[in-house]
Amino acid sequence: MKKVYVEDAVGMTLCHDLTEMKDGFKGAAFRRGHVITKEDIPHMLDIGKRMVYIWEPDAGEIHEEDAARRMAAMAPVKGAHYTGPVEGKMQLIADIDGMFRVDTELLTKINSIGDLTISTLPDHYPVKAGMRFVSMRIVPLATQEQQILEAEALCEGRTLFDLLPYHPLKAGVIITGSEIYSGRIKDRFEPVVRAKLQSWPCTITDAVICDDDRDMLVNTARKLLDDGADFLIFAGGMSVDPDDVTPVAIHDLGCRIVRYGVPSQPGNMTLVGYLGDIPVIGVPGAAISQPTTVFDVLLPQIFSGLKITGEDLTRLGDGGLCQLCRTCHFPNCTFGRY
After folding, report:
1. pTM attached to this predicted model
2. Which helix (H) or strand (E) is 271 found in, with range?
3. What mean pLDDT comes out for the span 217-246?
4. How confident is the model at residue 25, as a pLDDT?
5. At 318, phi and psi to the nearest 5?
6. What percent of the chain is helix, strand and coil (3-state, nearest 5)?
7. For residues 211 and 209, what is the distance between their CA atoms, to the nearest angstrom?
8. What letter does residue 48 receive in the DSSP assignment?
9. What angle, rounded to 10 degrees, do the helices at 294-304 and 189-197 form?
C-alpha cells in the first residue's frame, strides 16, 4: 500500500474502510474497493481523512481481511465456525460443548512470524456452544503475503485447533470415611459430586459409603464396575493420615496410577489413574468446601475421552493457585482465597 492525499487519489481504489461518526451513527462512509471520485473529496475531508491508502501494483501485499480469511482457512475446526472478518478479525465460535485443544508450539511459531496475531483460550479449556475461543488478525492494515504463506506452510499436515465433543459416562461414586460410615457425621461429598456432574453428560450408577477398609473399597469398586460404571470417583480418604487408605485401595484394584498428588491447589492430593480405559479419580476433601478444585479442571478431559497424562498434570502447576482461571463456571474471581 501507499499513502496518497485524497485530492490526488481520484480514480484510485480505496483499500480500507473509512469510518464516519455523525449524529450517533458510526459506520463505513466508504468501503474498501471504492473507486474514489472528485465528488468524494469534500466528504472525506469532512470526516478527517486527508490521506488514504491505495494499492500499489505488484507490491506482494495482502489486505487485513484477506489475510484473516487465509488464516482461518489454515485452521478449520469441526464443531465450530468462523465469523468475520470484522475490523480485520476472524473469530472462531463453538457450535457444540467440548474441550478446546491448541497446538501451543505451532501457535507460538505462527505468532512469531511478524504481523500475524492469533489469540486463544487456554489449552484444555471447557468451551460452551456459542462461546468465542479464537480470534485472529494481522496488526497492520496489510502485510507481505509471504508471511501468510509461511503460516500456511507451518500448518500443512498439522492441527492447530481442535474441539473435542463430550461423551456420556456412567459414574460410580465411592465415599470413604469411618466417621461417615459409622453415622457419626453426615456425608457432604455425595451432593457436591452430584452437583458437579450435573453439568456433564453423566449418569451416576450408585454412590456408596465405605469404611476406611481396603477390601471394602476394592469390592465396592468391582461391584460398581459390574453394574456398568465406566468412570470411578473415590471421594475422601486421600490425605497422608494413617487411616486414609483410599490410594492404596485404588492400587489394589489394579489401576495404573498416573499421579497421586498434583502441583495445583485446591485439590493438591488428587489421584488420577486408569483401570484399562476406565478413568479413576481420587478426590480429596477440598472439593466439599471450595467451589473449584483440580477435580473440576480434569472433568473436561475425562468427558472428552482424551487420556490424562503425567505431563498434563505436571503442567497444572502453571496457574495452579487459581483454578477459576481454568474454568468458566464462576463469574467472580476469588484468587487469593486458597
Report:
1. 0.79
2. strand 271-275
3. 91
4. 78
5. -75, 105
6. 30, 30, 40
7. 7
8. T
9. 40
